[in-house]
Amino acid sequence: MNNNTVFLRIQLAKRFLQGIINRNLADIIDKIPVDLFPKKGGSYRCCIYKDRAITRYRLMALLGFSIEEETDETRPLKEYAEKAGSRQGAPDGPVLTLIDAACHSCPSGRHTVSNLCRGCLARNCASVCPRDAVSFVNGKAVIDHEKCVNCGKCREACPYNAVVYTPVPCEAACPVGAIRKNEDGSALIDHEKCISCGQCSISCPFGAVMERSHLYSIARDLLGPESERPVALVAPAAAGQFPGGFGQLTTALRQAGFAAVVEVAWGAAETVRKEAEELAEHLKKGKPLASSCCPAYTEAVRLHCPDFAPHVSTAPTPMAASAAWAKEGWPDRRTVFIGPCIAKRVEARHDKSADLVMTFEELASLFLAMDIDVAECSESGTDNPRVDRFERLFARAGGVSQAVLTYAGETLGREPEVLRIDGLDKKALAKLRLIASGKLSADFTEVMSCPGGCICGPGTVADPRVSSRRLDEYAEEKNLALSAAGQKSAG
């Protein structure tokens, strides 16, 4: 974890969870901003009072509330905590919320000329500009921002790399143009366009974009009667997120209070089987097929590329398949998906699969609050049937298509043409539209919204390079899962 924003969020969530664990959250929650930013302490912003105000809004998001919908700034957090306590399940409405006070009102993305400009004779920058926006003053290039359309041709033409482009991080990261600057210069999320991919939350250096957390409900269930404690559905991307192996993570989750632990990689077996069957049928009919397991991408198709929808597989996602299986074994317990993905909250709400969702970042906060060290835990098996290697590799870009093609084998009749989209952006969406219109050929398209796959999701806490290596090790591990019969009796 090399991002101070992530570190601060984890520490705040830890304090928040300690209040729930000690059953005094309502008494201490309004003091947390002051404790974190005391009168004689340092500040990240202009003053401690702004830091306190921003921390207050972060706590609102941790309680599951939309910050944009706040109508009374004087309302104490204690009242929000009491209201959250009466909520059944996950909060309704948009997944992401934006802290206006935390947004730094970044200047609009623009090209500027740095002091590297040598005022050369060629003046390529001025020659290629389609709007005559580049002129020379005192022998140096100057860009007229009233004329400039940010095409970038001057930057590409400069032999000294003297022209630089400064983007608005959240706007540049959003693949569907769902976040923009309002009249005051602060960011604004258009929830009619938003696919909840979380790329804006990763890119914002000020941590102004927050997800509306399910932590309060999850912690309450973990501390409730043993007969009501939830079942953990753990995504394969968990490999490498915490010190120790997957077996140690399983033990840590049980120590945290989860009644059972299910590898979501096991649910991927159903996804692979169904997608392989559909691919064989589509090949016979000469129709393209696309993967279905990334919820940010399927939301993008639903909202921005509906013509592609008929080509998306109807296979249940690994989370949905695992949740359905867990509900059969433990019908009276809620299921909690634990993974790297913010958009899984959208999937859970639409498909009524997992009851609650938490990220690895939130799980790290929970372990800290409960003083659980994964590396010190012994190994234990999960409560699902055996998992195969390829199903565990779903977490990496290319893993889904590899698993589907391996499972299908010779039943396909021929080698299918595969398109792998590693990271969703405007160009990727354009490719999907071309496939839908028949202008681009691809028998099977795998789409991962996050570049690199789930191991690079917005809810991760580990270096993706470490996670990728650990994922390989995890895929080859001796399977510690219990038998299905053992699971049924455990339920």
Automatic annotation (TrEMBL):
Xref: Gene3D superfamilies: 3.30.70.20, Fe-only Hydrogenase (Larger Subunit), Chain L, domain 3 (3.40.950.10)
PROSITE patterns: 4FE4S_FER_1 (PS00198), 4FE4S_FER_2 (PS51379)
Record GO terms (molecular function): iron-sulfur cluster binding; metal ion binding
Sorted UniProt keywords: Iron, Iron-sulfur, Metal-binding
InterPro entries: 4Fe4S_Fe-S-bd, 4Fe4S_Fe_S_CS, Cytosolic_Fe-S_CAF, Fe_hydrogenase, Fe_hydrogenase_lsu_C, Mono_FeFe_hydrog
Keyword Iron part of the UniProt annotation: yes
Membrane-crossing residue ranges in chain numbering: none
Domain 4Fe-4S ferredoxin-type stretches: 139-168, 185-214
Alphabetized NCBIfam families for the sequence: FeFe_hydrog_B1
Protein name from the UniProt record: 4Fe-4S ferredoxin-type domain-containing protein
Organism of derivation: Marispirochaeta aestuarii
Organism classification: Bacteria, Pseudomonadati, Spirochaetota, Spirochaetia, Spirochaetales
